[in-house]
Write a structure and sequence with these properties.
CATH superfamily of the largest domain: Metal-dependent hydrolases
Number of helices: 16
Shape: globular
Number of strands: 16
CATH architecture of the largest domain: Alpha-Beta Barrel
Structural class: alpha/beta
Number of domains: 2
Oligomer: single chain
CATH class of the largest domain: Alpha Beta
Radius of gyration: 21 Å
Bound molecules: N-(iminomethyl)-L-glutamic acid, fe (iii) ion
Helix content: 25-40%
Largest sheet: 8 strands, mixed
Distance between the termini: 23 Å
């Protein structure tokens, strides 16, 4: 007896294959009981043990594909206000740094978030989670970092927790007090404020798992970033690093040295940096939507894959990169970073889960949580191939049909 059987799928991808790109089946089925996968494989084998007619719910997936739910390991999905004017300014040639230096960018979002009520923050995030779910995301990381003072950073993290409780998508909270230097402060004084005031308050409330810094030219130096990450570790928060997005200053090596769970962006990382990441077991998270929006060169995924790095991808959904879609991220990973559709899928599922320290997610093995998507296409290649089209028809989270 099972709660859900999805049968006769044209393709079912379990996850990364051993000695082959993917572990996958054709004419396949998957059975779910008590939120977990109890069988996955050829339809005749699965339905012999778990007949569709005995299941509480059965989905005939003829002509369709079953994939692990997408895991989006890097977003700034909680914000308020609107920055579409900056999209236009960037199209006319303004750079991200010029906008930030003029008090726009992150600093504009900070002003909006400080003014927003708690209810607005929660409802804004819930709206974005709805869109992400409709695009096949079942787990997402969301960062604070548009408060830049203790009170607002805590309000953001509380809103993230509230939205997580209300929404079927699992939300993993990251504290990012070191997202920008607030206006009127210098970077050293603000670094000290993050360490002395924000981190202890966040740790006391137990509302964040990771501690992220924007280690970037003109934002936080490697030394300032190191102090923030080390202070976070003393409070039990695991490091993550925004590294080498706009310039090469050493953030990738910092991630390796501090044992970060992931190093993200990596547009300017060198081979030497990537060797250090691989050796330290840090997951590289690439954000092709950001490079696309900035008109920047994409990260060198091929070089990273050649080094055996478990490359992950994320949307980086934020007001500067307004995409909820892990499908679009996979299209960009293929077209712009020359990843294969199989590599892009693994990057958006299994490796993305590793970037959040969720080893049990991102694969459809027996015993794993039943987080999966049914896409209206005959195989996984169509997800990146049909760029700009959302093929997700049904989403199942912990065995429950939560979309479609
Ligand atoms: O990952 N680079 C820093 N943080 C975000 C952008 C946030 C924003 O512009 O609001 C990023 O791209
Ligand atoms: Fe980011």
């Amino acid at each position: 007896m099972s709660d859900l059987v999805i049968h006769d799928a044209a393709e079912l991808v379990v996850g990364k294959g051993e000695g082959k790109p993917l572990e996958r089946y054709e004419n396949a089925a998957i059975a779910v009981a008590e939120g977990k996968i109890v069988a996955a494989g050829p339809t005749d084998e699965v339905t012999r043990e778990y007949p569709a007619e005995n299941a509480t719910e059965a989905i005939n997936a003829t002509g369709k594909t079953v994939l692990p739910g997408f895991v989006d390991p890097h977003t700034h999905a909680l914000f308020a206000g609107d920055r579409s004017d900056e999209f236009e300014a960037k199209l006319r040639g303004k750079t991200y740094q010029e906008i930030l230096a003029a008090g726009g960018g992150i600093l504009k979002s900070v002003r909006s978030v400080r003014k927003a009520s708690d209810e607005t923050l929660v409802s804004n995030l819930l709206g974005h989670l709805d869109r992400m779910l409709a695009n096949g995301t079942t787990t997402v990381e969301v960062k604070s970092g548009y408060g830049l003072d203790t009170e607002t950073e805590l309000r953001m993290l509380a809103a993230i927790r509230e939205a997580d409780e209300q929404h079927p998508v699992d939300v993993i909270p990251t504290f990012m007090g070191a997202h920008a230097v607030p206006q009127g402060m210098d970077a050293d004084d603000y670094t000290q404020a993050v360490i002395d005031e924000q981190l202890p308050a966040v740790a006391e409330q137990g509302i964040a798992e990771f501690n992220d810094v924007f280690c970037e030219e003109g934002v936080f130096s490697v030394e300032q970033s190191r102090r923030i990450l080390e202070a976070g570790m003393e409070h039990g928060l695991t490091p993550k690093v925004h590294a080498e997005e706009l310039a090469h200053i050493g953030g990738t090596k910092l991630a390796a040295e501090t044992g970060a769970t992931s190093a993200d962006h990596l547009l300017h990382s060198t081979e030497d940096d990537i060797s250090a990441l691989v050796e330290a077991g840090v997951i590289p998270v690439l954000l092709p939507g950001t490079a696309f929006g900035l008109g920047a060169e994409f990260a060198d995924a091929e070089m990273m894959l050649d080094h055996g790095a478990p490359v992950a991808i994320a949307t980086d959904f934020n007001p500067n990169c307004h995409s909820h879609s892990m499908g679009f991220a996979q299209s960009l990973a293929c077209v712009e970073m020359r990843m294969t559709p199989a590599q892009a899928l693994v990057a958006a599922t299994e490796h993305a889960a590793l970037a959040l320290d969720r080893q049990h997610l991102g694969r459809l093995d027996v015993g794993a949580p039943a987080d999966l998507v049914v896409v209206d296409a005959p195989n996984h290649v169509h997800v990146p191939y049909q760029y700009g089209t959302n093929l997700v028809e049904t989403v199942v989270k912990n065995g429950e049909r939560v979309f479609g």
